Amino acid sequence: MVTLLHASVASMSTPADTRPGAGAWVPVGAGIEALRAAAAQCEGCELHRAATQTVFSAGPVSARLALVGEQPGDAEDRAGAPFVGPAGQLLDRALADAGIERDATYVTNAVKHFRFTATPQRRLHQTPDLAHLSACRPWLTAELAVVDPEVVVCLGATAARALLGADFRVTRQRGMLFARPARSDDPGLVRAGWLMATVHPSAVLRADDRDAAYEALVADLRTARNAL
Ligand code: SF4
Hints:
This protein is α/β, with parallel strands linked by helices. About 35% of the residues lie in helices and about 15% in strands. The protein is built from nine helices and nine strands. It binds iron/sulfur cluster. The site of iron/sulfur cluster has 16 residues, from α2 and α5.
């Protein structure tokens, strides 16, 4: 059964930080391709320095469902496209099993550059902090304003933090549909619709019981599909 809860969409507070944020790079009124091109030049926080490139989004602007992940991983950073690594492949399978067409879905991340710690062997993922989420938020706001999806699904705690607030707990509140009121103060989420969060597909890959974790992800995605 779908649980319907009302929640106000969280607004990101601006932390005390010297990063300028992406706002100065975001062209006003731009479409997705212009946003993508502008984001490639973004220096709104320090993450652009070590990453290979900006990883913007994939999927059509006509999408009714948008998926928001955390940040690009190692494979995505090299490819310049979101969700193309192992987690992306698992997500593709989960979407198909949930009856969702990946090619009709808009896929993006809350943070557009890969944050990592370099070791001699590999680049280790580092979770973006609140300052990175806040700095990168103008891109997410702008792209969601263009796509204007009916349902937005946050993949993982970081994306949920960006869109549902710091108090949101994926472990307790995953799979719940939150009414997203039409807002005048956040142009990225203009239209009334639904917000939901589930785990990031990389968490399924790390789970002790991977089959159970996968089925739970598919069940959450089915809930999102049924809300369309
Ligand atoms: S992470 Fe976001 S704000 Fe920071 S440089 Fe990249 S695009 Fe700009």
